[in-house]
Design a protein that fits this description.
Layout (H helix, E strand, L loop, with lengths): L2 H25 L6 H22 L46
């Protein structure tokens, strides 16, 4: 389904549910007894249901095409090069005996 068609279908579902909710709100003024409870539940629960129904996209029918399969690739070891020794001038703090001169 094209995105525009999907959006239109979801908007229609939402509009229908919210229209029924508006009818329930108006009916709250006129009904009595246990019907009041039924209409109140409709007025309270329909906004949640309208959003959930509107956000459920159309399920694709049939086979879903996916781009190429997963290709296994083995990692190649990176060659390591010997690093040249750094000249510290004999002042390597790690080799000091801890005494101040």
């Amino acid at each position: 389904m094209a995105p525009a068609d999907d959006r239109r279908a979801r908007m229609l579902k939402y509009t229908l549910a919210m229209s029924i909710r508006m009818v329930c709100i108006v009916l709250l003024l006129f009904v009595q007894g246990w019907w009041l409870f039924v209409v109140a539940v409709g007025a309270i629960a329909l906004p949640y249901l309208a959003v959930v129904l509107a956000n459920v996209g159309a399920r694709p029918a049939g086979h879903v095409e996916r781009p190429g399969g997963v290709v296994a690739v083995r990692a190649q070891p990176v060659p390591t090069q010997a690093m040249p020794a750094r000249d510290t001038g004999g002042t390597d703090p790690r080799s000091s005996s801890g005494s101040a001169a």
